[in-house]
From TrEMBL:
The keyword Repeat applies. Signal peptide: none annotated. Keywords: Repeat. Pfam families: LRR_6. PANTHER family: LEUCINE-RICH REPEAT-CONTAINING PROTEIN, LEUCINE-RICH REPEAT-CONTAINING PROTEIN 34. It comes from Prymnesium parvum (Toxic golden alga). This is Uncharacterized protein.
């Protein structure tokens, strides 16, 4: 558990990417990682591949995904989560809008559970693109407003320049 404790410390220290593959984490360790995921504000990528995590561990991770707003990539490849664990993850993705990459390969999961998870990831990707476009539009509007407001010769520009001139006279 020393490696896991070190990893949990890293989660709380502001790390953005954590690779814990092949660390024998299992369900108990997944529960601890899930608790840390609920409070981390910086982690965007987590690799838990090849860790013998079962359906119980997947349920803990899924619970954390419901409130985590930073994780965009999660690798659970090569664990033992099965259809039950995949169903927990798919359910969590109904409320999680940030996860856009999920690897569930080699988990003994049926195609139905994989399709549900894939559909949720596609939805999250669409939401992420929409958020980026809204941000771009907001920035464009702000820049346009600044350009019009502070254009040389405009009233706001003249007022600003008058204030700067009076301040420099006061400083002299």
């Amino acid at each position: 558990m020393t490696a896991l404790n070190h990893a949990l410390d890293k989660l709380q220290s502001g790390v953005t990417s954590l690779d814990l593959r092949e660390n024998n984490i299992r369900d108990e360790g997944a529960a601890h990682i899930a608790e840390a995921l609920k409070t981390t504000a910086t982690l965007t990528s987590l690799n838990l591949g090849e860790n013998e995590i079962g359906a119980e561990g997947a349920a803990h991770i899924a619970e954390a995904l419901k409130t985590n707003a930073t994780l965009t990539s999660l690798n659970l490849r090569g664990n033992d989560i099965g259809a039950e664990g995949a169903a927990h993850i798919a359910e969590a993705l109904k409320t999680n809008a940030t996860l856009t990459s999920l690897d569930l390969n080699e988990n003994g999961i049926g195609s139905e559970a994989l399709q549900q998870a894939a559909a949720r990831i596609r939805e999250n990707r669409k939401k992420a693109v929409a958020r980026r476009w809204r941000l771009c539009r907001a920035v464009r509007v702000a820049v346009y407003w600044l350009e019009l407001t502070f254009r040389p010769g405009g009233a706001a520009y003249r007022r600003s320049m008058a204030e700067v001139s009076s301040m420099s006279m006061e400083l002299s």
